[in-house]
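Appendix C: a fully annotated inverse folding record. The material below is reproduced so that readers can follow the format used throughout the book. The structure is listed first as tokens, followed by the designed sequence.
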């Protein structure tokens, strides 16, 4: 299933996932921090997404770094670096979740949301 994410101009809430709602009571399943500021400038350094995800990673038994399944680096269709955050992270590590929310706010980064359809469980 293809997930479409549209940039959202308002600031990212720092409350738990149950309270993350857009108008019309749609619950947010995940959000993406986009490497572009609110005024359209590219965020630097260019490896910021890997660095941010590295903070949330662990070393496995094979001594290789593994990104968290809840915080992953990626890129948007336009090529901007991004970090995809599953809001279930809040239940496991509320401080890590709030750190990511505050990172986006403090750096005035664009944020996109993926909605959870409560009738099907699918992410839109």
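Designed amino acids, in order:
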């Amino acid at each position: 299933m293809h997930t479409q994410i549209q940039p959202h101009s308002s600031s990212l809430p720092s409350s738990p996932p149950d309270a993350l709602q857009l108008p019309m009571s749609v619950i947010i399943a995940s959000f993406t921090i986009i490497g572009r500021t609110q005024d359209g400038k590219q965020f630097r350094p260019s490896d910021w997404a890997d660095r941010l995800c590295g903070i949330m990673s662990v070393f496995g038994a094979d001594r290789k770094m593994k990104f968290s399944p809840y915080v992953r680096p990626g890129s948007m269709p336009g090529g901007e670096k991004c970090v995809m955050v599953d809001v279930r992270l809040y239940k496991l590590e509320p401080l890590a979740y709030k750190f990511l929310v505050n990172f986006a706010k403090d750096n005035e980064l664009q944020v996109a949301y993926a909605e959870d359809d409560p009738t099907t469980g699918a992410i839109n």
